[in-house]
Amino acid sequence: MSTATLRTSRPGLWGSFRVWLVALVAVLVLALVSTPSSSSAAQRVTHLETLVKCPSCQDLSVAQSTSSSSLAVRHEIESMVARGRSDTQILTTIEAAYGPSILLSPSTSGLGALLWVVPVAVFVGLGATVVILRRRR
Q1: Rounded CA gap, 59 and 38, in Å?
Q2: What is the Cβ-side half-sphere exposure of residue 102, based on CA atoms within 13 angstroms?
């Protein structure tokens, strides 16, 4: 059996790598496409409300909750947007007032950065391992 026949008849690791690579690209494209533009104040408020967790609810955003604490946070977000504060400033202010667990997505600084960096590093490491193993054969 020739080397070319072995490569084409064995789906193995390279096929799986391609599937994961396509999935990663699809997720990145969706993340970029679904990120709202900050063209209007109402859109910004709506987007920010989906990023902040209800202080008194279990795993709901302030956009989804009707509790009084969620309404208070919504009012804070609306007033900060009206005053011209940036999204980062608004989220930082809310996080300082309610604690780091108020944000539905982890912070991109400090220990929260590890939650973003580690999966990427693992993926890159796996890709490098696959390339190295394929070259040795």
Answers
A1: 25
A2: 20
Residue 85 φ then ψ, to 5°: -75, 150
How far apart CA 102 and CA 27 sit, in angstroms, is 25
Compute how many other C-beta atoms are within 10 angstroms of the C-beta atom of residue 53. 22
**Tokens 């690209």 identify what position?**
25
Quote the tokens at residue 92. 């930082």
> Mean pLDDT score of the chain, rounded to an integer?
80
Helix axes of 41-51 and 68-82: crossing angle, nearest 10 degrees = 140
The predicted-structure confidence for 53-84, as pLDDT tens digits, reads as follows 998 888 888 999 889 999 999 999 999 999 99
Compute the distance between CA of residue 77 and CA of residue 52 in angstroms, rounded to an integer.
10
Least confident of 46-60, 88-102, 109-123: 109-123
* Residue from 122, 101, 121 nearest 112 by CA: 101
